[in-house]
Amino acid sequence: MFFRRVKLVVGFGDVVDDSSIPFSLIATADTNQTLVKAGPGVLVGIHAINTNAAVRYLKFYDIRKVPVAGSGIPVRRYAIPAQSTGAGFVAPFLPPARFLNGIAFTITGGQADNDTSALAAGDVTLTLEYI
């Protein structure tokens, strides 16, 4: 008798282990241009803390290379609240956020897609969970 396996989390292919992989970053004094995964994946959670008095902007790109802050169009944008107004957020994704090419991000001081404002070191602490 054949039984289909039911996956609790949406992942790519028929991967037996769909548990998440953690990624953690403490912001440096730049735009934190980061490639998390150079291939298809899904983002299942974000925990972002901002210790600065100004809002910071986390921008995700569906690409398989390190993004360049201020160029390209992010596929997801998140404002990380300022220390005085909330200091961060937690976002579990149900369903997960799918990236077909790769998971990459920048963190900038401005909202606009073309912004290249650098952060101060330690402004943001970021933890991602992805598959």
CATH fold group = Jelly Rolls
Determine and state the CATH class.
Mainly Beta
Termini, distance in Å?
Answer: 30 Å
Counting DSSP E segments of at least 2 residues, the number of strands comes to: 8
Helix/strand order: EEEEEEEE
Q: Indicate the structural class.
A: mainly beta
Over all CA atoms, what is the radius of gyration?
A: 16 Å
Strand percentage = 35-45%
Count of distinct structural domains: 1
Q: How confident is the prediction overall: mean pLDDT? A: 89
Q: What is the makeup of the main sheet?
A: 4 strands, antiparallel
Given as residue ranges, the uncertain stretches (5+ residues, pLDDT < 50) are: none
The helix tally amounts to: 0
Query: Largest beta sheet: what is the strand line-up?
Result: 1-8-3-6
CATH architecture: Sandwich
Kindly state the percentage of residues in helix.
Answer: under 10%
Choose one word for the global shape: globular
